[in-house]
Amino acid sequence: RDMEAELRRALAGGEMELFYQPQLSMAGQVTGFEALLRWRDPRRGLVAPGEFIAVAEESGLILPLGEWVLRTACAEAASWPGGLHVAVNLSAVQFRGGDLHAVVTEALRLSGLPAGRLQLEITEAVALEASDQVVSTLQRFRALGVRIALDDFGTGYSSIAYLRKLPLDKIKIDRSFVRDLAESESAAAIVRAISTLGTTLGLTMNAEGVESAAQLERLRGLGCTEVQGVLFSPPRPRGEVPAMLRELS
Ligand code: G
Ligand code: G
Ligand code: MN
Ligand code: NA
Fold first, then answer.
1. Which of 7, 37, 63, 176 is the pocket-test mutation for ligand 1 (most atoms within 8 Å of CB)?
2. For residue 1, what pLDDT is reported?
3. Residue among 171, 208, 210, 230 whose CB has most ligand 2 atoms within 8 A, to mutate
4. How is the chain split into domains, by residue range?
5. What is the whole-number distance in angstroms between the Cα of residue 228 and the centre of ligand 4?
6. How far is the C-alpha of 81 from the C-alpha of 103, rounded, in Å?
7. CA gyration radius for the chain?
8. Which ranges carry the EAL domain (predicted)?
């Protein structure tokens, strides 16, 4: 496949980079950043992962690409001030092929980033499996001090059963609920119910896709503990992390 060859070249040629989007406590403190992959293609310009992650997954290229993301995110975060965390998105394919535990521990070792400052965002596709192997891999990460977040919660087939089965530290409520907060009482009720449940289980409750001050106000009353979205900042290049910290403090 053409795209596959291009991606392979892009990874080898240093055209991949990470953007970072801040995550904040309800009190407005930046607690860390989510790493979001971008491909800086000389011809196409900046390409978002929605356009190439599927091809990377089908071709297996997600394994070396995912390893590059983990190493780069840990190395870049190691130079950030304080205890700021970095959250890295994982593909379900990374749990199947290769030795994900070795990849993560090597990224931590090479970077010197304390494990407690790394968060791994898993998708519903990982949760759906919730095989013994997935659960034990997640338990080994948590034993290191790495935190686990369940991304895009509330979409697709995501179920309450995962919350019992998976060792989690954080739930990210899908941005579709946040988007509908203003018009929809049911969206607000669902956010409140999920947040109550998650908080009772001791989990951080992240609301993503926060775009307006009105949405932030609603979320405040619904039990969320962490927010993220363009209201605070869009994902920006790594060199702009200090500027984001200044602007948001
Ligand atoms: O970054 P947006 O800006 O376009 O990201 C689109 C989608 O791509 C999101 O679902 C996000 O989780 C996913 N994504 C972003 N970066 C990575 C990455 O490094 N690895 C994987 N597997 N998915 C990523
Ligand atoms: O699926 P995941 O949560 O990993 O992906 C994050 C995606 O959300 C990225 O594509 C990122 O660019 C996008 N994003 C970040 N902030 C906002 C926002 O405020 N509104 C919307 N609609 N998308 C956002
Ligand atoms: Mn994510
Ligand atoms: Na998400």
1. 37
2. 62
3. 208
4. 63-233
5. 10
6. 24
7. 18
8. 1-249
Long-range contacts made by residues 134-138, C-beta under 8 angstroms, separation at least 24? 134/95, 134/166, 135/165, 135/166, 135/167, 137/95, 137/100, 137/101, 138/166, 138/167
Distance CA 226, CA 205 (A): 6
Query: The tokens of 248 are what?
Result: 């948001």
Kindly give the interhelix angle for 62-77 and 2-12, rounded to the nearest 10 degrees.
Answer: 30
Q: Which CATH class for the 63-233 domain? A: alpha beta
- Please state, in angstroms and rounded to a whole number, the distance separating the CA atoms of residues 2 and 135: 36
CA-wise closest residue to 120 among 74, 164, 143, 89: 89
Ligand nearest to the CA of 173: 4
- For residue 2, with 0-12 CB atoms within 10 Å meaning exposed, 13-18 middle and 19 or more buried, which class applies? exposed
Cα(175) to centroid of ligand 4, in Å? Answer: 7
Q: Is 49 in the pocket of ligand 1 (CB under 6 A)?
A: yes
- ipTM for the complex shown: 0.97
Give pTM, 2 decimals.
0.97
The string of pLDDT tens digits covering residues 32-79 is 999 999 999 999 999 999 999 999 999 999 999 999 999 999 999 999
With helix as H, strand as E and coil as C, how does 123-174 read? CHHHHHHCCHHHHHHHHHHHHHCCEEEEEEECCCCCCHHHHHHCCCCEEEEC
| Ligand 1 atom closest to Cα of residue 123 | 12
Please indicate whether residue 174, judged by its CB atom, sits closer than 6 Å to ligand 2.
no
CA of 66 to the centre of ligand 1 (A): 11
With a 6 Å cutoff on the Cβ, whether 11 touches ligand 1 is: no
